[in-house]
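G., the chain you wanted modeled:
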Amino acid sequence: MSTDNMQIVLTYADIALASSLIIIVLLVSWFLHLRLTKTLVIAALRTVIQLSFIGLILAWIFAREQWYEVLIILTIMTLIAGSAAKNRVKRTYKGLLVDTLIAVSTSAVLVTVIAISLILQVQPWYTPQFIIPILGLILGNSLTAISLTSNQLIENLHGQQGRIEMMLSLSAKPFEAVHEQIRAAIINGMTPTLNSMLVVGIVSLPGMMTGQILAGADPTQAVRYQIVTMFLICVSSTLGCTISALLIYRRFFNKKQQFVLP
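Predicted structure as tokens:
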């Protein structure tokens, strides 16, 4: 086999060797009294179990290519992402789960449809090899951005209640009274994505690109795929943060446009 087409196949022994490296992390936790031993062990076990389980499911889905099975997987992924985004918010309110689900699903599904139908032009649209990984990438980054936005906005609205009510008393409209809080929250949610875009290819090689290169793909094609995914993630995160912020903002005002804590 030529080196140009070299593809390294990982064995269970390789996985076991990589897993043994976690011992280093456990030693650091023990030496510095970080009290993370239990969390690290659980996280490592869940990583192996969850990825192995999803690997079996994906292999089965890829072999069958039935649109309704793919749709079920996509729906489950979206619901879990929305729930995860909600669980990362410290100060919750009734209806937060609905808001996060709307923000996650709307942004991720819209961008995924654009990617599949217009950019990649996948036929049929439910080809699992493409749509599942793309939605997974977008959901993973979107839920982080949305949770950061939601968390900061809710905290700011609670912490700056007096300032907001003062602006309302000075004839400011509800959106004007909370515009700075919304702006700061969206910026906070977008920061990880923007930071990644600023250093990608210089400081870091993203996971998707690295995986393709290790699998023997043409580096130029891997780069093109990564550029596309970075832009998709940026758009989805921006839409998700904006939708989430607007939904949360509406929860803090009643029909009389009075500021209330939900």
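The radius of gyration is 22 Å.

Shout if anything looks off.
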